[in-house]
Amino acid sequence: MARMERNLGFDLVRATEVAALQSGRWMGRGDREACDQAAVDAMRYVLNNIAMDGIVVIGEGEKDEAPMLYIGERIGTGTFPEVDIAVDPVEGTSLLAHGQPGAIAVVAVANRGSLFGTREIVYMEKLVVSEEAADVVDLTAPVAENIRNVAKAKKMDLDDLTVVVLDRPRHAELIQDIRETGARINLIAHGDVNASIQAMVPNTGVDMLMGIGGAPEGVISACAARCLNGGIQCRLWPRNEEEREAALAAGLDLDKVMTVDDMAQSDDVFFAATGITNGVLLKGVRYRGQGAKTHSIVMRSASGTVRYLEADHRWDKLMRISDLAFDAVN
């Protein structure tokens, strides 16, 4: 695949910043739809002004259910480069609506045709680790074996290692298996893209992510893994026989363990995320009357560069150059 000449990461972070700025004002107000709509409208506005010919591969859903940033929507000015786009304008909508930590705005871009997407299955079984443990884990192996191998690769005692798991009834057996190893568990309500990045970035206090979560989030996490050289293994997980039959009819292999090479095939992936509410990885939006401050991460796989950006935003100047209203919630 042809490498893109310019670093789209700095364009993409403007989209995640504005999504965070617009949706952050809905923190704790209990309105999930308003949180999501504010982020979607803002992110789409910026993405459509970026010089690219993009197609949304991971988005808000089908066109009839998501009038903007839906799967298959064309985004950008229509000029080179041709890219796939994966978006999650608010990862952790419930977290934001209830004023809880860890909500982020996320977007990733890669060469056209390189990102995996499926409409047939909603969930994936996932295993995510950092670069140093990427070659010692196997999604099909017992839980205890994977945990022991990660601890050894990271030169940690088992009782120092932390595994993130979504707090769901379906994970009761997984949680028990982890506890029997002596490893620590961090149960989260939502946000496994955020947790996956934490598992791949040094010094976050997270060493692994395990369990079943959203398939779109798995692909977005694979984009981050491409940039961070992280280890990610996923397997499609149909919720019922109807999904299983639809997946098989679409030619999907339900037994295949997918890696970053299957889900984000391009060697030139751009990834940006901005904190909306405070979290381990990123600080949330901090408003101050006539402006705000944001905290973001920007990555590119081709260079391996990871940047953390703190940005100050002024409402008066932003509104001179855009059609977005930054100084009030409608």
Question: In words, what does this structure look like?
Answer:
This protein is of the alpha+beta class and 330 residues long. 31% of the residues lie in helices and 25% in strands. The strands form two sheets. Strands 1, 2, 3, 4, 10, 11, 12 and 13 form an eight-stranded mixed β-sheet that branches. It has a five-stranded mixed β-sheet with strand order 7-6-8-5-9, sandwiched between helices. α1 packs antiparallel against α2 (32-47) and α6 runs parallel beside α7. The longest helix is centred in the first third of the chain and has 16 residues, at 9-24. The radius of gyration is 19 Å and the shape is globular. The chain starts with 8 loop residues before the first helix and ends in a 9-residue tail after the last helix.
Residue share in helices? 25-40%
Number of helices: 10
Q: Tell me the strand percentage band.
A: 25-35%
Spans of at least 5 consecutive residues with low confidence: none
Mean pLDDT, all residues: 95
C-alpha geometry: globular
| Strand-pairing-aware structural class | alpha+beta
Name the assembly state. single chain
**End-to-end C-alpha gap:** 44 Å
Q: Tell me the Rg in angstroms.
A: 19 Å
- Write the H/E string, N to C: HHEEEHEEHEHEHEHEHHEEEEH
Largest beta-sheet details: 8 strands, mixed
Strand segment tally: 13
